[in-house]
Specification:
Chain A: GO terms for molecular function: ATP binding; ATP hydrolysis activity; P-type sodium:potassium-exchanging transporter activity. Chain A: Pfam families: Cation_ATPase, Cation_ATPase_C, Cation_ATPase_N, E1-E2_ATPase. Chain A: It comes from Acrobeloides nanus. The complex is a heterodimer of chains A (about 900) and B (about 325). Chain A is an alpha/beta fold and about 900 residues long. Helices cover about 50% and strands about 10% of the residues of chain A. In chain A, α23 links the parallel β19 and β20. The N terminus of chain A is likely disordered. Chain B is built from 7 helices and 14 strands. Chain B has a 5-stranded mixed beta sheet. Classes of the chains: A alpha/beta (about 900), B alpha+beta (about 325). The interface between A and B is large, with 73 and 66 residues.
Amino acid sequence: MFLFRFKMVKGNKNQSDLNELKQEVQMDEHQVPLEELLTRFETNLEKGLTTKKAEQIYLRDGPNALSPPKTTPEWIKFCKNLFGGFALLLWIGAILCYVAYSVDYFTLEHSTKDNLYLGIVLMTVVIITGCFQYYQESKSSKIMESFKNMVPTFALAIRDGEKVQLPTEKLVVGDIVEVKGGDRIPADLRVIKAYGFKVDNSSLTGESEPQSRSPECTNENPLETRNIAFFSTNAVEGTAKGVVIQTGDRTVMGRIAHLASDIDSGMTPIAREIEHFIHIITGVAVFLGATFFVIAFVLGYHWLTAVVFLIGIIVANVPEGLIATVTVCLTLTAKRMASKNCLVKNLEANLEAVETLGSTSTICSDKTGTLTQNRMTVAHIWCDRAIETCDTTEAFTDSGVKYNKEGTMASLLRIASLCNRAEFKPGQADVPVHRRECTGDASEIALLKFTELHIGNITQYRKKNPKSAEIPFNSTNKYQVSIHQTDDEESGFLLVMKVPNAVAKCRSAGIKVVMVTGDHPITAKAIAKSVGIISEGSETVEDISIRTGIPVEQVDTHQAKAAVIHGTELREMSPDQLYDIIRDHDEIVFARTSPQQKLMIVEGFQRQGQIVAVTGDGVNDSPALKKADIGVAMGIAGSDVSKQAADMILLDDNFASIVVGVEEGRLIFDNLKKSIAYTLTSNIPEISPFLVYILCGIPLPLGTVTILCIDLGTDMVPAISLAYEEAESDIMKRRPRDPTRDKLVNERLISLAYGQIGMIQAVAGFFTYFWIMADNGFLPWNLWQIRSEWDSRAINNLQDSYGQEWTYANRKVLEFTCHTAYFVSIVIVQWADLLISKTRRNSLIQQGMSNWTLNFGLVFETCLAAFMCYCPGLDNGLNMYGLRFSWWFPALPFSLLIFIYDECRRYCIRRWPGGWIERETYY
Amino acid sequence: MSKDNKHTEENNALMANGHKASPKEKDSFISFIYNKREGTFLGRNGKSWVQIIVFYIIYYIFLGAFWLGCLAIFLSTIDKNLPRYYGKGTIIGANPGVGYQPWLKNNPESTLIKFNINDNTTYADYVGVLENYTMKYENETTTKLTKLCSGSESNSDIVKDGKLKEEGLKPCRFKLDVFKASGCSLENDFGFPDGKPCVILSLNRLIDWKPEDFADDVIPKEIAKRYKKGSIGFNCDGTYGPDKEYIGKIEYIPEAGIDGRFYPYAKMDNYHQPIAMVKFHNLPRNRVVLVECRAYAGNIEQDIETRQGLVHFELLVEDYEVSTPKTNGS
């Protein structure tokens, strides 16, 4: 009988599901006599199952593999993409178009197909963007799929009395299998025979020490008993024969994997940000739409005209291309990170993980291996109350060292060599010791290498001092005893490693690095110190007490910057106490923690509003990985389950890759802001024509289709190119963003984009519009309230300011020419907007123009605009007409104004940090 | 906007330190709108509101001034008497459209002329529009500024390159006598009470455009009988088969259409736009007739798509008794 206990936060909606999973599971296979078990499974110890029987059971139980976590059905995913966010608004717009068209069609004799076309265009836009997003998602999940299926495994089973190699998926309950050191346990096994068989349960329980397995039942608890080997753990050494007692999802591992898949990891920060932003924009769109719908009624417009206004306002308000832009930006960054060994796994739009990493404020790194790249070296020896430094260079091969080989030192070396299960892989006699490949735990390997250097030929030394008995290390005993012909004693030694300065980099970036490990507190603390998790000069409560002589209980906890928390202490702590500890200490090491406690720790940090990244490789880590804002699994050492629970995979298992990830994440967050600021700005010149059209009755300056040309055409490439922008300053030297205060889209961004730059763009557009109207005979003051006549097909002779009379068709050509010119002037002011969006603080002179994608974007949007303007046939399709050369330039002074204004604004921000300008306009 | 703005407002610091545990206070929407404790309205306190409003006022004043400045500079380059682009190759082009009257401003989308001969209120609007339209030709103050043209005199004499040769030159006067003679004047309410309505046709004014004559062998058959050199001929007919059947007799006033001497047009205060009228003599009662009128000259092309060189309108003459309520609809 066993029970996994996970502390869940109160009010978690998944609590009931979890409770179900947490139910007690009957398991007696390890206790019943072997004979009975074999009878139960109708199997035979020598001959195994018959093929026929095995097939029957296979049909009954299904394959022996973990079923992938419940995924949303494809069609739901597709629908989410199709109807989520802005898409819904656009659908409404499209439906209104059809309504307007059909009403027109049935009531007017001269019904135009404009509304029908617009409806089709809108629908196409929604469907294409939806498909694009869906494609992005499914493409990335396919990468993940292939990643998962990389290594097929086989098991040696006995069927019909013969040994056969079977894919592990084919194993069934009752199969007799043989495993040997190095194999992965193919299913939950009851051990029948064992020869020096040891398994590494670390992926299940977090214990790093291999444990021996034998046929005897030693404990009621199936996790503790020795005669069970668990699915997906690794056999370290020896051989064993066992009978399969559970397969697939019914294995212990399978159950934990399911538990992990049911913990709601919540929305990623950027998903929250984007939702927040969609809410704002939707709110503005609905508000403006409704207001002007009413105003149109009050002004006496026909309801159908009011509906057309509504469509226009919706289309103008929604940045159609933005979601696609964001997706592309994130994908680009994800690719860039993958090339730096950070594989972003983006099942179900987890793409945002990239950015989440950027906002990370705490990293819980569990494995010392992660921090040390699994390469530890003995660097210091603490012996006879003195610390000696060792040479850790790889070239160091001298074994005739000057250590005092007497006394304490001798026993230390002896223990280090004997009480150690790491071994050199054979055939490496010529390889320098430091480079030899070994089997075993990282710390033991370090010791092995150390003793090999100082004693020499450990293999032989061990043979001389054979092991007679051993109590392996486990987290309950917290010590390891091995009895050799020489006797055993406990000594202190510490070792440690050369670590990349990744931790230091994290710290300068304001990220708390917390170590959560199963190691002994002393080891853990030492590692923490050497890798910089506990920085030089920081003291724990214990350190203070030793230094000052005050008893531990009386030391003011606020004086201690660092803390080492033992798993047993943690067990007795209330969530509030944990909260206090997390708040009061900057440098925390959790030692001897059980896998369950990891989840608690992660939750503790999250309660403080921190964004937590967790690294882990074992199955036992998966709940914590899942719970974390971003779970980072190890690509090499990680178990399948942990990879599944994680959002990101470090292909090289290197902690430094996380730092790369953080850097990229922060950069993309900054760049997304710029990109959004750029895209949103053009919303104002898109909306204002409709408002002025309704309020002043001038002919419409910008059409709905033209708006789509901007949002989905000319604005796209420049917006994406901002993702390639280089950082303005050292982004790793500032604090992580505060998710509640530093929003992706905040009111400063809106104020700048809508209230300032957008307004300049709008007046630029209107200037161009009046320019062209006047050039053709309509002076600005004559356009006032001309709308009803202008738009009436009945009037074939509308007078302009010179008394010339215009047919309806000619007026419309003029109007569409104005649309085109307005469109072109938006492109021209967007040049300036793109240049000012490159930086949020620096001058363009400081930033430079080395972003060639962006430079390409400038050229591209101009060429695209020229193409749309002059391509024959587009006058009918898009209502775009060729412009006279001079009509390209009216917006230029405004473009210049934008550039100068914003340079001044940014100068003020730099000149008066914290000043009013910065507080109101720095987004 | 969201409730989170409050926080953002409180601390606009560039990178807020995540270490501070944020006090868990209820950011209810109400307290966002007005927070008594902090004296903030919509997340800003009084001073902050004043600052931002003043900033935006100044900003928009400057922006408005810049815009008006640009516009003023641009408009100063515009000739008040001649648009920069006109004539062939420009948007307005050199192929005039045709206009008609009466057209009601309060129902701008409609080209239907619908009236009941027994009810003068149904056509009073139309008569009013026509009266208004024709008034300018008889208005003393404007007629004084025109001259009677005879012989070869025409507006070509006073217009050069789209502009009046000099201020004060008088254009030709257009006279309504011919219409009066044919029963198309206010005296008989333009024929409406008899169910024989007169409709005004005009050619769109285009600067620098004047009609060209048809060569003798290419005069369209529709106007061949009535055609006179130097004029713009008109021909009206039903738009579709049935309309052609029902439209009945049409009288063109004057026969030859519009005299070409009133062209070309140039911007002036007192231009008399020449018109022609068509009188429909026996329209069917209580039945809509779709009418298409085309203008003919050597340099007019008719295009149904763009309505150049032609115009469409509908006529519906009713003869219900006024006293009986119209139960069977129209």
